[in-house]
Amino acid sequence: MATSGKQLRLVATAILCFLLAIFVQINAYGAFPTREVISKWAESFQERLLVDLDKFTGIKNLEKTYDDLRRAKLHKVDGLALVHRMSRDITQSLEKKMEALENLVAHAEKEVKTYKYDNSIKLTDVNFVKLKEFEDDDRRLVYSEKFRKGVNYSYSVCTFLSKFLNNLQTF
Fold it and tell me: What UniProt keywords are attached to this protein's entry (predicted)?
């Protein structure tokens, strides 16, 4: 309701401005305007009013949408075929993911088998970040231009991944 009130005020303002423009032009002529001048004013006012009406009501957009819907054709969807196709696609996707996971597990198991335990390494020798004790200015993290943030060079995911990828390339 508030929107229609705003539109009515806008139209009323436009009409008042138009009437004011007419009176200003009448004073400029010094006499009452001719029939041709009034006809031009009426045509101009009609064009402006139609443009504003189209803009505020969206009638052109509504007509276009309606015409598009009239040309639309309906067709029946076979629900069973759709379900079978979706099932096949999901199955293929999950099979690929299972294959990738099995591959990762096989490589991880191989790494565990070839791992040599070193008794000389103490827990205090490894500099790692405990997330519960982490602070923004933690000195164990060194800023890296490559990653654009602090990293732990004694051991990080990047170190692990580079070793893992190097081992994969030797297969």
Answer: Coiled coil
- pLDDT at residue 95 in the model: 96
What is d(CA 59, CA 78) in angstroms, rounded to the nearest whole number? 37
CB atoms within 10 A of CB 158: 14
Distances (CA, A) of 132 to 128, 129, 135, 136: 12, 9, 9, 12
Q: Do 11 and 45 touch, CB atoms closer than 8 A? A: no
Query: Which of these, 99, 154, 160, 84, lies nearest to 124 by C-alpha position?
Result: 154
pTM for the predicted model, two decimal places = 0.32
Angle of the 59-71 helix axis to the 35-57 helix axis, nearest 10: 60
Q: Say how many C-beta atoms besides its own lie within 10 A of residue 129's C-beta.
A: 17
Please identify every stretch of the chain with a pLDDT value under 70, giving residue numbers as ranges. Answer: 1-5, 24-33, 123-131, 133-140, 152-171
What are the strands, taking DSSP E only, across the chain?
Answer: 142-144, 149-151
Looking at residue 107, what is its pLDDT? 93
Query: Cα dihedral sign for 75, 80, 82, 85?
Result: negative
